[in-house]
Specification:
The protein has 298 residues and is of the alpha+beta class. Helices cover 24% and strands 36% of the residues. The chain is built from seven helices and 19 strands.
Length: 298
């Protein structure tokens, strides 16, 4: 029998300082010389500064004896270092962020709840607006176009959608399955920023390479770190994940919770979808469409 084939790492990329996204394809040499896969023509970088390679289903970062060092989350690395979603990579003065898709848990639970039990001193509680944006019909897309063409469309979708979130004060928590999950902490962001992001996402539908559905909620969120990267957990997060299925049942391209309506002060502007129960919760939740004035800008 032949040797077992090692698992391929999940779809991954680097978010560069100028906003570009550099997609990883197994091996990526980084430096200022032209023979690197990712060329960063910056004097402080070494000609061959660092190497990212696939190893056992994950990406691993190596420093190539660079002059100004390679750092992960502000700590210098001296040995091969496995990368997690959201890790900040610093090469001399250049800061990039490593991103990778995570597994989608169909039941709606967050990944941290499924994999890790955390001590209380590792958890930070913050009040946030939450957003989940999910591609509609991704399975059919891959079947119709084939893996490579569908992947290119997914990459174009992520590239176009990401700035609509970040330029309006949002922070992307992760890419889970074919969905993007983002948050706006109330201690650093404001309701009008979140509202502007929802409006921008509505207006972008016509230009988007793929159709998508969005759901939004507001409440207390627990932040922690696990082997997967930054995690957000708690009942507010569970409602967000599970409401995506409810929105699909309503046939809604966008759906927001009562808590979002109240905090944005848009009561009376939104049509109600009615009450709905959520698996595992005793309360009923009321969900709404976005204000009609926002959708008319589409």
């Amino acid at each position: 029998m032949g040797s077992p084939v090692p698992p391929a790492p999940p779809e991954s990329w680097l978010e560069l300082p100028d906003g570009r996204m550099f997609w990883l394809k197994g091996r990526c040499a980084i430096g200022r010389q032209a023979d690197n896969d990712l060329v960063l023509d910056i004097p402080e970088l070494s000609r061959h500064h660092a190497l990212i390679g696939a190893d056992g289903g994950v990406y691993v970062l190596n420093d190539l004896r660079s002059r100004n060092g390679t750092y992960v989350n502000r700590a210098v690395i001296t040995r091969p270092t496995a990368l997690r979603d959201g890790d900040e990579i610093q090469l001399g003065p250049v800061r990039t962020r490593f991103r990778c898709k995570r597994r989608w848990f169909g039941g709606g639970e967050s990944t941290a709840e499924s994999t890790t039990t955390l001590a209380l001193n590792q958890v930070q509680e913050r009040t946030c607006w939450l957003l989940l944006v999910d591609v509609v019909g991704s399975t059919a897309l891959f079947s119709r176009l084939g893996s490579e063409a569908a992947l290119r469309q997914m990459q174009a979708w992520i590239t176009g959608l990401r700035p609509l979130i970040e330029k309006n004060g949002g922070q992307i928590n992760g890419y889970i399955g074919d969905a993007i999950v983002a948050y706006w902490p109330e201690d650093t962001a404001r309701g009008p920023q979140f509202a502007a992001a929802l409006q921008a996402l509505t207006a972008w539908r016509a230009a988007s390479p793929l159709p998508y559905r969005l759901v939004a909620h507001y409440g207390s969120v627990l932040f922690s770190r696990s082997e997967l990267g930054q995690e957000i957990t708690g009942s507010t997060v569970n409602v967000l994940y599970r409401s995506e299925k409810i929105a699909k049942g309503f046939g809604a391209p966008a759906m927001i919770s009562q808590a979002v309506v109240d905090t944005l002060g848009i009561g009376g502007q939104c049509e109600s979808f009615g009450r709905s129960s959520i698996d595992g919760m005793s309360d009923y939740f009321v969900f709404y469409a976005l204000p009609e004035a926002w959708t008319l800008r589409d």
